[in-house]
């Protein structure tokens, strides 16, 4: 388990985020735009603007070092790839490890010789997932990784991430407003509003019996026609 004992983000005298949470295996952090979920992700990646103050306290046996303990999958895979560089040259591990990773994410080794523009969106997202797992991180941070994908490809990517987590043993923090994707991937959920956690629990419990009106609005917006008791 990875425990965030305290995460506080402020700008001047204005407190933007003040939360604490634990990631046992797979946790979704959901909320509307401006709720603080993106700031939380940036804080964990040490990517906050210098104008913001951040206090981050966590378990002593875990260190938030991107590329070592942490892997990151962005919303748009193009942001993580150089468009003018072949895929094989965008990894920082040896050829054997790259080929191993490509097999894990279900990609043909022939794609290593191509440029990003020659791959589909689903293939690019698999490449970025492989890159995020290069150094066997303990925690994988996901920033809306399926938003730009069509429904069929989205399901396949979520299934891939779920299987990789089970096989590789890393934990997942999935930052999203897409409760459907969160339900497919995560066992637990925290709901964030105005920088505060307003609800938390198992994914099943929160979706079926949300306690907060804010959570109900999020669920209704995502699942107006779905039945989660099946």
Q: In terms of topology, how is this protein built?
A:
Layout: E1 2-11, E2 14-23, E3 26-30, H1 37-44, E4 53-58, E5 70-73, H2 95-104, H3 121-132, E6 139-143, H4 151-168, E7 171-176, H5 179-185, E8 188-193, E9 196-202, H6 203-208, H7 213-222
Parallel strand pairs: 3-7, 3-8, 5-6, 6-7
Antiparallel strand pairs: 1-2, 1-4, 8-9
Describe the structure.
With 230 residues, the chain is an alpha/beta fold. Helix 2 packs across helix 3. It has a single domain, classed as P-loop containing nucleotide triphosphate hydrolases (Rossmann fold). Strand 6, helix 4 (151-168) and strand 7 form a beta-alpha-beta unit. The protein has helices at 37-44, 95-104, 121-132, 151-168, 179-185, 203-208, 213-222, and strands at residues 2-11, 14-23, 26-30, 53-58, 70-73, 139-143, 171-176, 188-193, 196-202. It is globular and about 50 Å long. Helix content is 31%, strand content 26%. The strands form two sheets. Strands 5-6-7-3-8-9 form a six-stranded mixed β-sheet, with helices on both faces. A three-stranded antiparallel β-sheet has the order 2-1-4, covered by helices on one side. The longest helix has 18 residues, at 151-168.
CATH architecture: 3-Layer(aba) Sandwich
Give the CATH H-level superfamily: P-loop containing nucleotide triphosphate hydrolases
| Count of domain modules | 1
Classify the helix fraction into a percent range: 25-40%
N-to-C SSE series? EEEHEEHHEHEHEEHH
Largest sheet: 6 strands, mixed
Mean pLDDT: 89
| CATH topology type | Rossmann fold
């Amino acid at each position: 388990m990875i425990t965030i004992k305290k995460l506080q983000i402020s700008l001047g005298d204005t407190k933007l985020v003040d939360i604490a949470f634990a990631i046992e295996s797979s946790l979704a952090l959901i909320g509307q735009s401006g709720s603080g979920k993106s700031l939380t992700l940036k804080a964990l990646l040490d990517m906050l603007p210098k104008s913001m103050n951040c206090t981050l306290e966590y378990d002593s046996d875990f260190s938030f070092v991107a590329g070592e303990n942490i892997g990151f999958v962005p919303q748009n895979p193009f942001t993580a790839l150089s468009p003018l560089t072949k895929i094989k040259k965008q990894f920082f591990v040896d050829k054997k490890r790259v080929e191993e990773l490509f097999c894990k994410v279900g990609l043909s080794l022939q794609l290593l010789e191509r440029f990003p523009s020659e791959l589909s969106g689903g293939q690019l997202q698999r490449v970025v997932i492989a890159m995020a797992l290069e150094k066997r991180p303990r925690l994988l941070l996901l920033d809306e990784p399926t938003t730009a994908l069509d429904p069929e490809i989205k399901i396949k990517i979520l299934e891939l991430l779920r299987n990789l987590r089970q096989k590789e043993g890393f934990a997942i923090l999935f930052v999203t407003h897409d409760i459907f994707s969160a339900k497919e991937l995560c066992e637990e959920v925290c709901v964030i509003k105005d920088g505060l956690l307003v609800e938390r629990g198992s994914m099943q419990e929160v979706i079926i019996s949300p306690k907060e009106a804010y959570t109900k609005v999020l669920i209704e917006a995502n699942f107006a026609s779905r039945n989660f008791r099946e």
